[in-house]
Task: structure prediction
Amino acid sequence: MAVTDKVGAVMVVGGGISGLQSALDLADSGYKVYLVEKLPSIGGVMAQLDKTFPTNDCAMCIMAPKLVAAGRHHNIQLITNADIAIVDGQAGNFTVTVRQRAFRVDPTKCTGCGSCAQKCPVETADEYNEGSKVRKAIFVRYPQAVPLVYSIDPEKCIGCGICSEECKAKAVEYDQKEKVFEIQVGSIIVSPGFEEFNARLKPEYGYGVYKNVVTSIEFERMLSATGPYFGAVLRPSDGDIPEKIAFIQCVGSRDEHCGNEYCSSVCCMYSVKEAIIAKEHGGSIKPSIFYMDLRAFGKEFDEYYNRAKNEYGIRFVRSRIAAVSEDPKTRNLILKYTDNGEPKEEVFNLVVLAVGLTPAADAETLSRVMKFRLNDDGFCQTGVFTPVETSRPGVFVSGAFSSPKDIPMTVAEASGAAAKAGTEITSARGTLVTKKEYPKEKDVAGQEARIGVFVCHCGINIGGVVNVPEVMEYAKTLPGVVYAEQNLYTCSQDAQERIKGKVEEHKLNRVVVASCTPRTHEPLFQNTIKEAGLNAYLFEMANIRDQCSWIHMHEPKAATKKAKDLVRMAIAKSRLLEPLENLTIKVNQQALVIGGGVTGMTAAIELARQGVRVHLVEKEKELGGNLRKLHYLPSGDDPMEHVKRLEGEVRAEKNVTVHLGTTAKNIEGYVGNFKTTLSDGKEIEHGVVILAIGGQEHKPEGEYLYGKNKDVKTLLEFKEMLKKGEAKGKSYVFVQCVGSREGDHPNCSRVCCTGTMTAATKVKDKDPQADVYVLFRDIRTYGFREKYYKEAAQKGVRFVRFDDERKPVVEDKGGKLEVKVTEEDTGKQLVLRPDYLVLASGTRPQHDAEELAPMLKVPMTKEGFFLEAHMKLRPVDFATEGVYLAGLAHGPKFVDESISQALATVSRAMTVLSKTTLEAEGIVASVDESLCDGCGICVPTCEYKALEIVAHKDDPKKKMVDVNVGLCKGCGACVGACPAGALTQKGFRDEQILAMIDAALEQSKKQEVK
Amino acid sequence: MSSDVKGAHEAGEHGFEPKIIVFCCNWCSYAGADLAGVSRLQMPPYFRVIRVMCSARVDPEFVLRAFKKGADGILVAGCHPADCHYIGGNYRTRRRIALLKMLIQQFGYDPDRLRLEWISAGEGEKFQKTITEFTETINELGPSPMRGGG
Amino acid sequence: MAEASQAQWEPKIIGFLCNWCSYAGADLCGVSRYQYPTNVRAVRVMCSTRISPHLVLDILKAGADGVLLGGCHIGDCHYISGNYYTEKRVRLMKRLLEESGVEPERLRLEWVSASEGEKFSKIVTDFTEQVRKLGPSKVKKDEKLRSRVAAADDASETFRLKALVGRELNLVNKGNVYNNKLDPAELDRIIDSATEEEFERSLILELSMSKPRSVKELGEIMEVPTDKVLRHIVALRQKNMIAMEHPEGFTPTYKTIVIGGEQ
Result:
């Protein structure tokens, strides 16, 4: 296909956290993005969550900035309330027909004020709160929704016409029709997420019949401060606080009766989290979790699980609940279960069903329309080496649509799919993105402040409480104000034109808008004044709606007084505003990838295909890393074949320079401008670094006679024997969690259970008569890997669960191994005499991590893996920009997961490398060299490593701090810490904030206008 | 009467209108304050919010200046410790506020006039409660020493 | 004693008669010397639609045993369509009376034209008998009933019910904003469930005004299932009308937020 045929745009289908991440990555690396969401607003399931494991981060706090960023991004077009109807064409050039349902509200006019919903007389169950609250027939899904546009629920609306009468912006359009339109894109990413398992399909648990049986997502809403009970945990039957709460795991997962044999991967952890949060809400709450295997397999998940047990006192009971019944009088619930073989009955006040993840509701439709295959369980089919690719070229997948998974893995896949989508259309990068042209900025330096003030009525939202004309008149009396006016909606399109006109007419050099919150509206007004030739930072806002009229609705006088104060404060700051420059940093468009395993090679190839020159540094003499040692993959794919294929591709890529037997000796610089010295003395300049240094299998010297008896092997060693046909015996014992989940290595190594299933099944396949035992604590074959567990069991592999307090004991009886193990459930001791003892030993970091971490100023976990910027939403980034991590260096994981992360680093890196210059934040720290004495107190306060003590510019004998604006994020922490007053934060300078303080506390005598 | 129910109007009893300065970090607490507004949660009207990017930006000088200019109470609101948009900024805030409380005590201020709260973007109700309770505290303490109180 | 007072008791009935038809009908009744009981005290209004639920409930609270509304026949309204609205509003009033525990038969709406003097006397006689059979209204004395009537009153004043009932005729007869005429039965169902909800919510606010109450307590007093009470409390908290008190034990209580303000 000719280069020109490629379309430089990507369609992302599904606006949850996955789609958001893909969209933001692509839009930041030169592609136009159409983000299509079936609901009226983006955010998906994550927007419904209260907290996220294992950090207990507030989900909305960490997600909202991404929502807003996507909503504002000039290269992202949100198409919500829409479905995909037809997909024609081929990879690189698709024509997608989109069907967008009517909002019945004009999104360009709706200001999101909510007056319509307040008056709408039709109430219905609120889906965002799983029906536990009420919403109106005209609604937004949740208060922070993006886009913040109300829409009319066609099912519920009775057409009374009240909303239209209430809407002062005249945004309601009852005759709006469904729109059908075509969009040209080069690639498509599908990320429609998942559907919660319908708990009614397990009638034995009484969901929908017993009021006090709720699903985990309903419970999540209960925990949320924006939920039905404002964060209190209450029984739906009578509003009492439940004392005893039971969590029942695997509802609709690992259950052939309901057709879902796979494990849903996330339920164990979310239940642990919900139990912890419930406990934090009320100390009297006693949660119990009933589970089969506790699958805390992710990074630092086991530590979280241990804290739940030991610090929070959450009770864990290993048992599958057969049935739940209700005491009709108390509405308490009776659980029947067996504990160590004994039947028990226990009463609980509330039961939470950990419902599994099932395929997205529109999975089949999407697969039909887009012509890609689903797997047997109805999820999107992918391959081990192609984790983000559907069966249709040019159509990529990420998130829970391809298998149940948690947020970090979803986000990594989302970036990974973005990388793949981008590679497909690299030749068209930058062809469809727009760059807005603004008039030349007026020079206002040295001018006296000429401030224009625009006070908004927001329909009746402000004007109904605050006396807006009085506030406006008051503003006119303040120093520096040369013009003031009031508007019905200052954010409306015609008001923007007015503002521009007034800037001209009155030669304004500062603009203040008193209306709603800068969080949502500042960019709009900044854009307006830029169009009027003013620097964006000459704008200030007073929040007289969200933080005044709405919260003091019954005190109009006090609210008016407060509004005047807020306006006076904004004007006081405004007088001191100065134009800020968004500094630009040059970007060297080469990449350094450290580590030549599957992760590093994947990243290098993908970068190269996107036109980036890559230096791939591998300390060994050959490429391939750990994948060379795996020999078997559970899926049946051949790892060695893949290594060879990748090696060939790397060699064929003229953009990749391979440095074998080489390490990085020194790395200096920052995003866009790194300089690395290799062990062979070569110097490389590059813009980003990808750390893919891998991990290694733990050699458990001395444990279970490893290293003492030749028949004791690690799992990888044993697989090699299997491959070579050297494993000749009749009896095999596998021991799990060797060097994982204990001592200094409290976390799970994630892959060993599945690896054991592969090896054990191979043994059985070769010799069905062989005795194979697996001694384990929890089997953690999460996701579709559950089928390998089942297969092993079906082939006769015997599983014996032991207690971590009573580990198996191995003795050498005259060269013959003897393994004694106490079965946890029965307390019976088993004596086994295997020919081979296979230790599923944990994954450990590479030692070079410790050398690289200080060079790049990146942190590590206690166990020595690299620590990413944010466990949930920035899984492959470091806080230090331009440095990324993937694969085993991040923590134990499977090949497909390493590949997803490798691709993710490419996508993240391309947000930098696709540009020749980076624009730094306008709001950054800067230093007054004459005041700085180089004390260094500020340096550790910077989480972004943007501060460095250097020789003083004027006097090299003295020291001073240097701010790297390329790294500074503008939080101002250093400024708050500086004892000399030498650091300032642009846009939030001390004088500016002090002026606001002074203005706030000014004697109010002057306030009265009359 | 519970703190929830107590109407804003009661704060102004005895003719004393407290002057309260609230520093909110841009990412969590300011958003929490906005959410209180979106949810129409009512609270006493005697506080004025100053937005900063991170609670760690709150320079001791800001607090001292506000007291000097007659503030009766100062509330610093930031992200919950694990949620900080800037990773760890708010840990520093916590230490700084503890020190400032000691300092203002030496100037004759009740340390309760300075308060630090973690308020997330989802905690509109917590913002309402904090403002209501803090206004009550300041009401009980009366005008600041700068304004002739104790 | 009780029987004695019962025997002496005479129903107190307030009649509202529209100026153009039923008041004229009553006059004709007099001119024609038709006799009827003395229990009704007639109040002249310009149109039957003038009578709001609030007025009727207030009269019952003040001690009336029955309320009679007289209007023009459908189609004859002097003000074109006033009596259509009256009909809809009376339906709401009866639903609210039912909710609050007052016999809806204490309220009657009749169409009496200027020429129907005899009909007027029959209606008054019949309605007086009907109210006599119901016995004296307990609204004034029974505190529980009083609070329920007060709640019905509050409910009738909500924007939601006013909007629904006020628009009902147009939605059914002329069509809604989408030019569809709504099925009257369907709309009645919507209004009925809104009436029940608004009544129960108003009652919760009424009961929790003076002291905080738990869901279970409210359920018992109101004779409403507790899960439903809780759902109402969720809706009321959404509107910032009731607040949770923080409990010592396992049972939170709620108190109505009384709007104060400086005015």
In short: Strands of chain C lie at 13-18, 40-45, 66-71, 107-111, 213-214, 242-245, 253-256.
